[in-house]
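fyi for ur records
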Amino acid sequence: MIELHTFTFNTFSEQTYLIDHGNGEATVVDPGMSNTNEHETFANFCSDRSLKPVQLVLTHAHLDHVQGAGWVHEKWGLTPRLHPLDRATYEAAPLSAMVYGVLMDFLPPLGPELKADEPIRCGEEELEIRFTPGHAPGHVVFVYTPGKWVIGGDVLFQRSIGRTDLPGSHAPDLVRSIEQQLYTLPDDFEVWPGHGPSTIIGEEKAANPFVNAAGTGMLQA
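which gave:
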């Protein structure tokens, strides 16, 4: 069974993920490392566990989720894969960095597109891709059914949801994504988000103040 590791990086406290395939290889998800210390933390973790990153995938391409993409490309030769509808978001990341006044690695060329009907291979295991727009036009989440977890990016947080006031975001789409793609998962699935602690699907269905299973959330009224 594959193993998930998480790191908190950059000014935005973004969650970067590393998936250990169990065979010495690994997948990097949403590389947010933004300085030398964060680069070393990630590289040393891989080295200590004899892990070689072999693919790089993005839930979406906002600045905080791609700050380390250039470094990952330089160190391991990996090109980021994302949903085609988030290409414009990716290309806008350097401008966003200027607006926020933060450092930004160069953007490497993109790899093959992610598609919701094609799983991501992680050694002998697979991640299901679910299309979840609303926070970003091409947002996706990665579901690992045997482990009962999902890497959710900036869609659903513990008692919160992703922002809908950014370019390309759309609140009604985000509500649909949560209801149709996340709340249809079993209640005991754990959501590992792009910021903050993990949460459980059943808990958010019952108590999320913005989108819940009862349809009484603030974005559902």
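Helices lie at 36-48, 63-66, 69-76, 87-91, 93-100, 171-182, 201-207. thats all i got for now
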